[in-house]
Amino acid sequence: MTLQDEQKINADLLRPLRSTSVWFFLLVAFLGTILLCGAGAWFYQMSNGLAVAGIRWPIFWAFYITNFVFWIGISHAGTLISAILRLVNATWRRPVTRCAEVITVFALMIGAMFPIIHLGRPWLFFYLIPYPSERHIWPNVRSPLSWDFFAISTYLTGSTLFLILPIIPDFALMRDQMTGWRRRIYGVLALGWQGTTKQWHRLEAAMQIMAIAIVPVAISVHTIVSFDFSMSPVPMWHSTVFGPYFVVGAIFSGIAGLIIAMAVLRKTLHLEAYLHPLHFQNLGKLLLLMSLLWGYFTFAERITTWYGNQPAEMAVFWETQTGSYAPLFWTMVFCNFLIPFPILAIRKLRTITGCVIASSTIVVGMWLERFLIIVPSLGTKNLPYSWSSYRPQPVEIMITIATFAAMVLLYTLFTKAVPIISIWELKVGGHVQPQLTAEGETEEEHHALWRTRP
Amino acid sequence: MTHRWGMTVDLDRCTGCEACVTACRTENNIRIAGPEQSAKGRAIAWIRVERYYEGDFPDVRVKFRPVMCQQCDAAPCEPVCPTYASHHTDEGLNAQVYNRCIGTRYCANACPYNVRFFNFGNPVFDRPLELALNPDVSVREVGVVEKCTFCVQRISAGKDVAKAENRELKDGEIKPACVQSCPTSAIVFGDLNDPESEVSRLSRSSRGTKLLEDVGTLPKVTYLQKQY
User: Fold this and answer.
1) What is the 3-state secondary structure (H, E, C) of A15-36?
2) What is the pLDDT, as a whole number, of residue A273?
3) How close does chain B come to A316, measured CA to CA in Å?
4) Rounded Cα–Cα distance for residues A103 and B65 (Å)
5) Number of domains in chain B
6) pLDDT at residue A137, rounded to an integer
7) How far apart are CA A65 and CA A334, in angstroms?
8) pLDDT tens per residue, range A252-301
9) Which of A84, A311, A399, B205 has the maximum number of C-beta atoms within 10 A of its C-beta?
């Protein structure tokens, strides 16, 4: 890689940090307004009680817990994918890892808000935290909600480290490239990085340890989220398949979220030379695999329930298959399987546009999946006298919309502060310049070229 | 010997009059939700009378089933609470400690009987109902879960009286509000550890069944099934 190449990478990837258009401020203002509305809705709910939400006896969990599971699921995009790709040394991962890891950290932060937002008394959420208090009482370690607390805080700590570690050399680069107050800030963030051999070795070792450690953590997190449901004797919740089913769904929705984020970044930050169709191709294949796995798990879950034919479970089963939740259920099947499967399976359709369309339906479908796991079971539980249905109220809808705005806002602000593609990793990998993918080159030759890079 | 409180409900005797529901509400300071909120599923009733219809018109039979907390020995509501708000007492009751409750509502979801209720708002008692509040029972704040306690305040009071008079508790001396108000004596309360108590005797009846026994919650309420 020549000096010109390196300078071009620096210039391309630091451009969003250096120049800011008016659109950025408009976008931040727009998203910030939505976020403020969401915060307002939450305060309205706190001051009026949960009577303003749509939950009711006996459907005590609905939109908020759906959002919780959904966002924790989205968080599996990043760290898990990037850790696995690092461990198997897939060289095409280099431009993808950071945008994936950022999704993890932000989605976890948003997801972790929901167990607090949904509380009856959110001002006492610290009762969940184990600390020696004047109450002389520890959290109940038998409760899956306590496990959630430990799992999510571990995952958030781990994935934040996993995100920040490989940014350190880039912070140092920015320290050297920027001037004024930015130079000082990046200087502090660079933690004294000088690029010595010893430092590089330590960074590599730390990344290797984190990549190995984060995989079991990520898998355990969504298994524990699934335990919130499967540990209760509620029809269609009490299922052994939930652990892997949730993890698969999480990775599935996570990759979909990552593809959408990458496509948006590619267009808005003009990263066409870095986020290549190949990346979408490869992630699309992974998405196809997850779609098949998701279909398999859904089928397995449904067929065993139907064959077992237990009265309480069958009530929930028919409510989702043919009853009042059927439109949502079949929309979910379309969104998660019937639409993305052909798009991702046929090579001609697995383009960037194709992948984005498939990912968009998957994000919708996976949100519906979480909803359909939670609500029909609670509304059709055991005693028919208490059967009930749920209708979301404006506060719940507003807070849900606000979380999506929060995600985009955090991502937008992040791209202003840190290059969204890891600059040093690109340079280490020897980035393939656009001119190398000249007209007439076959796809196979192009793939071979990528594989030969260290 | 410690007590183990239990209950039997004779479905042959229950007329569905709901006197127990009213008595329970008054005894336990249960929040009044109002017609609008009640229609949205925010009403609280520690005991309710479920109506089930059997047969086709005109040969319809109505079956009333008063359902309150079954005070399970293996209660699904207890282990899921992250703050020990719902926990098992020495006398086998599923206690709910309001001060510890942060309102995750996990217990209410885990309960197969749906007998746990959430306070969707702060309690409001329109005049002159606030004069009827029972001083022995705390009024619950917004955001906490509550449920039938087997009138634990009456249990404590009964034990205190027996202790002051230096004697054993007599069977039938303690009557929860629902038991006291039942005009047909369909509900019987007592100590299951005393094999001679009426509730123990009735629990052993061949008509005795547990509600949703297959869930494995080991409830301490026994329903005596309808014969007629």
Assistant:
1) HHHHCCCHHHHHHHHHHHHHHH
2) 87
3) 14
4) 52
5) 1
6) 86
7) 23
8) 999 999 999 999 999 999 899 899 899 999 999 999 999 999 999 999 99
9) A399
For residue A231, the chain B residues in CB contact (below 8 A) are 79-80
Pairing of strands B5-10, B221-224: parallel
Q: Is residue A171 part of a domain?
A: yes
- Quick one: tokens of A222? 């969504």
pTM, two decimal places: 0.93
- What average pLDDT does range A41-64 have in this prediction? 94
Would an 8 Å CB–CB cutoff place B118 in contact with chain A? Answer: yes
pLDDT for position B44: 95
The CATH number given to whatever domain includes residue A394 is 1.20.1630.10
Considering only CA atoms, which of B176, B82, B189, B96 is closest in space to residue B138?
Answer: B96
Q: Cβ neighbours of residue A163 under 8 Å, at least 6 residues apart? A: A78, A79, A98, A101, A102, A104, A105
Beta bridge partner(s), residue B52: B63
Residue B139 Cα distances to A42, A218, B150, angstroms: 25, 43, 16
Domain count, chain A: 1
Reading the block at residue A390, the tokens are 């749920």
| Residue A452 scores a pLDDT above 60 | no
B122 touching A, CB under 8 A?
A: yes
A140–B40 C-beta distance less than 8 A: no
Chain B residue numbers with beta carbons less than 8 Å from the beta carbon of A61 are: 105, 109
Q: Do B120 and A51 touch (CB under 8 A)?
A: yes
Domain range for residue A306?
Answer: 3-125+139-435
The minimal CB distance from A128 to the residues B41, B82, B114 is found for B82
Q: What distance in Å separates the CA atoms of residue A195 and residue B103, rounded to the nearest whole number?
A: 51
Q: Residues in chain B, how many?
A: 228
Predicted-complex ipTM score: 0.93
Q: What is the CATH number of the domain that holds B98?
A: 3.30.70.20
> What pLDDT sits at residue A447?
52
